[in-house]
Specification:
mainly alpha
Length: about 200
């Protein structure tokens, strides 16, 4: 399931034009309107990826040998933060598209956008730390090479701390952190998911 979550996440991230996320609001909304079907496909694919990741973490929580507590913690954190991302995606599908098409006033969109951005930020921090705990759950597990478990745990921790603190920031691109892309949450678990699938 974790491999499927990563594959669908990569698909979701690759559908909209890349410049859409780095554009100022008028251009962003124009691109959403111009590529509405791609925007909707991306949002729905992220929904599927998030659900697959939750199922994958549930399977991992029951499969981890010595790190069951870490696996359960990863699942618990993800189940708390994933609904935040799903709500933000729902707003992308409804409010953003409606604003792009002119049926919602910009002040309402701006207010809801701040709320949606907060939900997304909660998901990103929690999602990265859930990935760190996922990696920790496989440290010492003979089915997964030690370096992959440690890499997953380390990357999840670094990504979570970077996003939380906003450092290092890519000011030229307007990004809060170098680990701002939501596709990273389902992508990093591949370090343990791939070897685990061959065990």
């Amino acid at each position: 399931m974790l491999i499927a979550a990563a594959a669908v996440g990569v698909f979701a991230a690759s559908i909209p034009p890349p410049r859409i996320f780095l554009s100022p609001e008028p251009e962003y909304l124009r691109l959403v309107r111009a590529y509405e079907w791609r925007w909707r496909a991306s949002s729905w694919s992220f929904v599927v990826s998030t659900v697959l990741m939750a199922v994958g973490l549930l399977l991992v929580a029951t499969a981890a040998l010595g790190g069951r507590a870490y696996g359960l913690a990863a699942l618990g954190i993800f189940l708390v933060v994933a609904p935040c991302w799903l709500i933000a995606l729902g707003l992308r599908l409804d409010l953003t598209v409606a604003t792009a098409n002119g049926s919602v006033e910009r002040p309402l969109y701006a207010a809801m956008g701040k709320w949606s951005g907060s939900l997304w930020a909660i998901y990103m921090v929690g999602g990265h730390f859930a990935v760190a705990l996922l990696g920790a759950s496989f440290i010492g597990d003979p089915r997964v090479p030690a370096w992959t478990a440690w890499t997953t745990a380390a990357l999840g921790t670094v990504e979570g701390l970077s996003f939380w603190t906003g450092w290092p920031r890519l000011r030229s691109l307007g990004m809060r952190s170098v680990f701002e892309l939501p596709v990273l949450v389902p992508l990093v678990p591949l370090f343990v998911a791939i070897p685990l699938s061959f065990a």
